[in-house]
Amino acid sequence: MTANSTLAGRTLLMSGGSRGIGLSIGIAAGRLGANVVLLAKTDTPNPRLPGTVHTAAQAIQDAGGQALAVVGDVREEADVQRAVDEAVARFGGIDFCVNNASALAPLKTEELPVKRFDLMQQIQLRGTFLLTRAAIPHLRRSPHPHILSLSPPVNLSPRWLGLHPAYTMAKYGMTLLTLGWAAELAEAGIAANALWPRTLIATAAVRNLLGGDESMQRARSPEVMADAAMAVLRRSPRDCTGQAFIDEDVLRAEGVTDFSGYGGGSDVLLDLYVDP
Predict the structure, then answer these.
(1) Would residue 6 count as lying in a domain?
(2) 262 assigned to active site
(3) What is the Cα–Cα distance from 115 to 171, expressed in whole angstroms?
(4) Which single residue of 44, 73, 146, 160 has CA 20 to 30 Å from 176?
(5) Could you write out the DSSP letters of every residue in 9-77?
């Protein structure tokens, strides 16, 4: 991937992105010459979570892109519209809408507080809907429009449906919205796809909620998702839409055969919703 790629000079709007997979996607896009607009809540440092929307924007600029940090909540319509308006005012339009923000509470039904249930549905579903809805008028004017949601293929195995139904509903809901937009916006030439990692990814969520240091050692780096996202966003919107991709499959189609550089060792752990 080179600086004269289809991302050079184009504008990517993303929810979240202060850290983890979102940050890696932002940096990868910046490295390819994109403008990146981040809508995120983390305005000041949190001792438990590295990075803020401002440090993320700086990292994207250091990678070679332009960046705009917008402090706000993807659940709030006014904040979302402000992010879209600022993106258009600064960069002239929006070419990519990346739904990255998500809340994780992988708990059984009786263990899950209603407040956490509401948070997951509001961020994953309402937030994804609000950001995409606000971006669509500008995507219609882009010559290379893509919607990309970081959500899994809809695996209806009882193993996954019964593991933590509320979180599963929130993540599958993101995918269903995205596949719905692929059909709804097909005539406009706007691509809409989901992307999910085959393996656990070494993020704060994995460290804090999905196994700690042991899981981190058997997880791949966020760069594997970033590289897959760049590959999807480079593809023709009319030819690449309506798919729920797995990162490794995307990269194999790009000719990648060695994944050892992403870490995780020989006994890497599969992510949720991915069968062996």
Answers:
(1) no
(2) no
(3) 17
(4) 73
(5) T-EEEEE--SSHHHHHHHHHHHHTT-EEEEEES--S-BTTB---HHHHHHHHHHTT-EEEEEE--TT-H
Number of domains in the chain: 1
Residues in the chain: 276
**Which token pair is 49?**
């979570």
> What are 216-231's pLDDT values in tens digits?
889 999 999 999 999 9
User: Is residue 144 situated within a structural domain?
Assistant: yes
Q: Which residues of the chain have pLDDT under 70?
A: 1-5, 208-211
Helices (H), 141-222: 158-161, 165-184, 204-209, 212-217
Of the candidates 167, 172, 262, 273, the residue annotated as catalytic is 167
CATH number of the domain to which 37 belongs: 3.40.50.720
65: domain range? 11-200+222-249
